[in-house]
Specification:
The chain is α+β, with helices and mostly antiparallel strands. The protein folds into 6 domains: 2-175, Prim-pol fold (2-Layer Sandwich), CATH 3.30.2250; 196-268; 282-422, no CATH class; 450-549, no CATH class; 559-574 and 649-673, no CATH class; 578-643. Helices cover 39% and strands 19% of the residues. Strands 3, 4, 5, 6, 7, 11 and 12 form a 7-stranded mixed β-sheet that branches. α15 packs across α16 (439-449). The longest helix has 20 residues, at 2-21.
Length: 674
């Protein structure tokens, strides 16, 4: 092990001397010998920002206490390093600027380092996804070991020389989205670079090939591709895409025709409104409208999308105000969305922001004194919006610029697109909650948009048996009507759905009468005229369920439950009967107690208290009464006699009369109890 450490130390020292000979300023770094701060310089390195250490200084500095070395960037080494924290960010850079990717690069634990040589002064600063190492900074270089990871050369090619124009191009790429070009009075969008073939293949395994084709074609339509281009890209791929095992095998011609129909359906608008260009997802709009009680943020986001700004494009506050002004938004609304109360959701900025100090290499503030040059913002991607707001992806209803002028026009446009796309059947309250408005506002929108409303009514024919489903009006009920349901006759007259009213109408009416329930209305926009009312049949159980949901006390209506209720009421009445206590004597036994050899009476029972204080009960018979008098004495034996024994049978009879119409079962049950 000791020999291995000596070998690594000699290798590190040899590498440091070679770098110094090549014109690089090197410094020792703690590495694995200091796990708490492995990338911290092991010496005071300020002087080496201006000069290169000598061979003797390097030999003295790089001893067995350190396992890593660093290269000082900037003018002293003529070195500029781009540090990518994420390897995917590096791959995206290689796709957009491949001419700068073919240079010396080092693999790091999370990403990589790109090395460039330049005589220009570039201060160190951060960008989204990494750092640019220039003046007053250093990078850990091979063969350093930190946390068990060995830095190694990933592309061992000569370092590229950068001129002033190259540095400007790189800095503009990292701080300004090159895919968006601002022309005088106009912003245009470049053609989409989405790989629709890969998108289709990925979605096909998740939601099925037909749904995947429709989804991919819809996204391509939003990106500005023509229907012919989409067919040329996806139709042949759809024909070759394997189907699930349960799906019937189809001929290639059938699959091709199916692909053409799906793509044509996506371009007809299927699930997307044709009012204008799609913007942010509807779920994002709804969450912002409900959470913030303001339309400033969603209107600004839609304005940026309508103006052609691509995702992750960088813009300034002045540019945002100009975009908002073109669609009719005020400057105050735009600033509220950028830096005001409406710019934050759950503590996170909806629109990313950062201070950009170094957009080019002229007049740079190398000492980082004073205020930053500019505060810039970044157009949030759909993925970021969904993550920040915590919602799922939904389609986007198309909007026009005129729809963004006021909060009313924006909410009204969303309401219009929702009805045009789905023809929903929802309560007015749900439609209002969706866009953060009130039911009264939705009624005004329906009037302005000429929305056709069809009242949906469920009807249940009323018979003698269904009368018990209706509520009984008691004295504590103040309202005279039943909210949400009523009784309607064949002549069209409407009455409150109380049980006594239903019984009277059923007795007097010659034709059928119905119990009517108001259900959520159906909304439609344009097209043929729709009926004012639509009737559907309902069951008695659905009506009882509706009453239970409203918090009303629902009577038990099944035969078994009603019979159990009768028994319960009878037992309560029997238990409520009081007993009369009569003392017995030898001469009063014949008056109070029945003759011998008679079955046990229901009029009462005999009882006395023994020496232990316990009550002794006996049947109310004359012979038993004489024996108890001999045992306990006169006046100490009592007859517990019901006040009115006949009331028991009367109660049973009244209980049976209370459930008239239930059939013979409850009456027979009560009779058996008697």
């Amino acid at each position: 092990m000791k020999s291995l450490l000596n070998f690594r130390q000699k290798s590190l020292l040899r590498r440091a001397k070679n770098l110094a000979k090549s014109g690089y300023s090197v410094i020792p770094v703690h590495g694995d010998n200091a796990p708490a701060e492995p990338k911290k310089p092991a010496i005071k390195w300020r002087q080496y920002q201006k000069r290169i250490a000598s061979a003797a200084e390097i030999a003295a500095a790089f001893d067995d206490r350190f396992t890593a070395l660093g290269i000082v960037c900037g003018r002293v080494s003529r070195l500029l390093v781009i540090d990518f924290d994420d390897y995917r960010r590096y791959r995206r850079f290689c796709m957009h600027l491949p001419q700068y990717a073919d240079t010396y690069s080092v693999k790091t634990r999370r990403g990589c380092h790109l090395y460039f040589r330049s005589d220009e002064i570039v201060p160190s600063h951060q960008f989204a996804g990494g750092d640019i190492k220039g003046e007053r900074s250093y990078v850990v270089a091979p063969p350093s070991r930190i946390g068990g990871f060995a830095y190694r050369a990933m592309n061992d090619r000569p370092q590229l020389e950068l001129q002033r124009g190259d540095i400007d191009k790189l800095l503009n790429y990292f701080h300004v989205n090159a895919a968006v070009h601002v022309l005088p009075g106009k912003i245009i969008r470049e053609p989409s670079d989405i790989d629709f073939a890969r998108l289709y293949e990925r979605l096909a395994g998740q939601i099925g090939r037909n749904n995947a084709l429709y989804r991919a074609a819809s996204i391509a339509r939003e990106q500005g591709l023509s229907q012919h281009d989409v067919e040329s890209r996806l139709a042949a791929l759809h024909v070759k895409q394997p189907a699930k095992d349960s799906h019937r095998r189809e001929k290639p011609v059938e699959r091709l025709l199916e692909a053409q129909r799906s793509i044509a359906s996506a371009y007809r608008g299927g699930s997307f409104a044709q009012a204008g260009r799609p913007g942010i997802p509807n779920s994002v709009r709804e969450r912002l409208l409900k959470a913030q009680a303001s339309s400033s943020m969603p209107r600004l986001l839609d304005a940026l999308y309508l103006a052609g700004w691509k995702e992750e494009a960088v813009f300034t506050m002045a540019e945002a105000v100009e975009v908002a002004r073109r669609v009719g938004m005020s400057r105050k609304s735009a600033l509220q969305a950028l830096t005001g109360d409406h710019s934050i959701f759950n503590g996170r900025h909806i629109i990313s922001r950062r201070y950009v100090e170094y957009l080019d290499n002229r007049g740079l503030n190398a000492k980082k004194r004073g205020r930053p040059v500019q505060l810039v913002f970044q157009v949030p991607s759909v993925g970021r919006l969904l993550a920040v707001l915590g919602v799922a992806w939904t389609p986007s209803d198309g909007l026009r610029e005129s729809d963004l002028r006021t909060a009313k026009s924006y909410r009204q446009a969303l309401h219009r697109g929702y009805i045009q796309r789905l023809n929903p059947q929802l309560p007015m309250r749900k439609l209002a909650e969706r866009i953060g408005a009130s039911a009264r506002t939705i009624r005004r929108y329906n009037h302005d948009l000429q929305v056709q409303v069809t009242a949906c009514i469920g009807r249940l024919p009323i018979a003698r048996r269904t009368l018990r489903s209706l509520p009984r009006r008691t004295r504590d009920v103040e309202r005279k009507s039943t909210a949400g349901y009523w009784i309607e006759t064949a002549a069209g007259a409407r009455y409150p759905a109380w049980q006594h009213i239903g019984a009277k109408l059923l007795q007097e009416a010659d034709a059928a009468i119905w119990l009517c329930i108001r259900r959520p209305s159906r909304y439609s926009l344009g097209g043929e005229a729709v009926p004012k009312e639509a009737h559907t049949a309902i069951s008695e159980q659905e009506f009882l369920q509706l009453r239970a949901w409203r918090g009303e006390a629902v009577e038990k209506t099944s035969l078994r439950e009603r019979a159990a209720g009768v028994l319960r009421r009878v037992k309560e009445r029997v238990a409520a009967i009081r007993y009369q206590k009569l003392a017995l004597y030898f001469d009063t036994v014949t008056e109070r107690v029945a003759e011998d050899k008679i079955a046990e009476t229901i009029n009462g029972y005999l009882f006395a208290v023994n020496e232990q204080g316990q009550q002794v009960r006996r049947p109310a018979r004359r012979g038993i009464a004489y024996r108890m008098l001999k045992e306990f004495g006169e006046g100490k034996v009592f007859l517990a006699l019901r006040d009115a024994a006949d009331e028991v049978l009367d109660c049973l009879a009244r209980g049976a009369d209370d459930v008239a119409g239930l059939g013979d079962e409850p009456a027979a049950l009560a009779q058996s109890l008697a």
